[in-house]
Amino acid sequence: MKVLFASSEAYPFAMSGGLADVAGALPKALRKRLIGCRIIMPLYSCVSEEMRQKMTFICNITVPVSWRRQYCGVFEAHLDGVIYYLIDNQYYFNRDGLYGHYDDAERFAFFSRAVLEVIPHIGFTPDIIHCNDWQTALIPVYLDTIYRSSDPYKNIKTVFTIHNIQYQGKYGYELTGDVLGLPNGTESLVEYDNCVNLMKGAIQCSDKITTVSPTYSREILDPYYSHGLDSILKEFTYKLTGIVNGIDVDVYNSETDSLIYKNFTVGDTEGKAYNKAQLQKEMGLPEAPDVPLVGIVTRLVKHKGIDLVKCVFEDLLRADIQFAILGSGEWEFETFFHEMAQKYPEKVGLKLGFKPQLAHRIYAGADIFLMPSQSEPCGLAQMVALRYGTIPIVRETGGLNDTISDSGDGLGNGFTFKSYNAHDMLETIWRALAGYAEKDGWRLLRDRAMKCDNSWGTSANAYIRLYKEIISN
To answer: What's the CA gap between 155 and 37, in Å, rounded?
Structure first.
């Protein structure tokens, strides 16, 4: 079985978020299971010289973008057993940042056509093209409307993964003729709710639609979560499935992680305690081994539930508790937490921005990890926290619901609450603090958390079953 994984970003070449982690890890896990999976992505100017040294020029062709033809260079790189193809066009991709440009629709229309155009030139005809988010949403549309009738495209199937339904590739109708270049009579495939919607086209044309967790696949059928796409998703529910993302267990490993203060294993209470003491010191907090330390690593935005935290934060600070907070975001929340750190210096440690090393140290040193998201398609931080024996408190949404279960039954790996309500969250935090006070029970919970398997292996096996189902049909 051969899979071409099309993504607008992939670790370690270019990344802006979780999509790059998925694109860097899932194909590698598939390869280990003898699936011929290769990655295709744009060659951005931000790709480092070190990575460019690993690339070999394959060929150059021209790619149609509506009425014009554009240069397309194809480079190949081999990394960790996976082959990457990088699509070069200086006009479209030699820019600061991956996204947010005035002509993003044209840039990724070019990339989508290029993915299909290069197939005869790379010696790799996939059984399945696995597309990801709106930037690759036109691949299934172009395949069905332009390429399907000719070799080598006749038998290629498509999977489209929605990583975050909020970003759909929505534009005005004027885009259809001048940029997309769809054949006459097929424009309706990308028209939805009085605009061009590229994700809608992928939903309609793909053989299967996946999301990054089972709960999220159900949530996006609800108008509250769907950002307007619920009606088209309900029409094609038979295509929809949810497969939870994994994490790279080699990167996030308490036994080998070089970024934390000291490595430790399951059951190693001294190693965990050392990381906590050093984290308290780095965050400017008193070293207090028995005071519960709550970690927050997030964007400081409402979407991540930070408004709930703000609402009850001073109530929490009346308890014997400490916080280690890392993140950046909306001015309102940055200012609030800065004020709290000034007012309660012995209880609130704050670092604004994103510092990967400190993030690892918070995962390793905190006792509790707070993640009360309003919505979370999958989420990685809660699974990472488990790897370091840091117990998550999460809201039951998206992938948080699929990876964290409440320990009230003596079997779970964290603490959960359902309603998006500050006082429901507060009550759950009180339960967690009561659990922390029971040292023997907390030790069992921590060991159970560290033994959870959230590796990419389980997810890769689920994708393989899906691919086999598509091909057999």
So the answer is: 17
